[in-house]
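Subject: complex prediction, re-run

Hi both,

The earlier run crashed halfway through, so I resubmitted it with identical inputs.
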Amino acid sequence: MTPIISTMGLTKTFHRKGGEEVVAVSDLTMDVEPGSLTAFLGPNGAGKSTSLRMLTTLLPPTSGSATVCGFDITHQQADVRRSIGYIGQKNGAAQYYRVRDELVSQGAFYGLGRVERRRRADELMEILGLTDLATRTTMTLSGGQRRRVDIALGLVPAPRLLFLDEPSTGLDPQSRSHLWDHILTLRERYGMTLLLTTHYLDEADRFAERVMIVDQGRLIADDTSARLKAELAGDRVLVTVAGTGPDDGALATLRRVAARGDDVEHAPVAAPEGAAVRYAVVVDQGDRVLPGLLADLAAGGHRVLAAELHQPTLDDVFLRLTGRSLREEQATTGTDTPAQPALTPGGPQ
Ligand SMILES: Nc1ncnc2c1ncn2[C@@H]1O[C@H](COP(=O)(O)OP(=O)(O)OP(=O)(O)O)[C@@H](O)[C@H]1O
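This time it finished cleanly. Structure:
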């Protein structure tokens, strides 16, 4: 299938005052299939928006090339713009216009006939849950409602490909969830290709078929969320065993199931039953490994007080790749799962 987006070595360098050079996007090479939903995931300043701005012809690349809907982003800018929708971080519909009027005049801007522009406005309001707000001015809407108006405006020309820059940033969890329902409905209805940026791990995980993790201008991982988690993070098994310190036999048993040479970590913990040690090990397919592991520990005379299996998140993937947590870098998303207890890598002691 011919890719709808194809980039080759796309790079953008900014020069800040004082001569400092910032490589915002470095050597981005990728193909995007038509009809797919791809998320660019990364911390603030990773280069996500700059990538989108180049692909939508808002910023010229410093080097490299790309085609979007078959058109060159440098030499066929008007054709690219005619083929895509772009919803930036701060689109902001005009404050004083009514929602429906705004959509209808956007239709006029794109050259739709009188009847067609009204039909399109009504259809988009219906899909995006805006019908009841048709006569409200944008300035009176909530953040989530306004974001939906932004998206409706971007969809007026019926693009084959829609770029969304952080569609849900700043919205409360309920509005985010509604917005996603609408985005998925749109996709189903029009079979659009969607490329969006987000720093919400859960959104990329749940909704995108393909996750491209970017950090410091570079693409550091590119796959389905499930494969990234399985291949780069693995499942984490935590077992709490009675004892006053790490036990060589228990460590040896746990090491046998460790994936990819990962070592076993351990830390003393207080348990109601007395002193205990919690061991942690990364394994492949934890649900298969755990029963045998517990049986082996019991056979070795170790009293297991608790066992937990943690499926990895995309944050574990990011941590593995960069040594940093994406979650710590995103301020207040409300999407966190509890942090792992601190454990020290251990060898026989
Ligand atoms: N016009 C500009 N002039 C100078 N530096 C810029 C400019 N635009 C972006 N940058 C820098 O380029 C880097 C990438 O920025 P970009 O906005 O693409 O990141 P991002 O991943 O979209 O971040 P966020 O999640 O905060 O939107 C950052 O270091 C940023 O400060």
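DSSP finds twelve helices and 15 strands in the chain.

- K.
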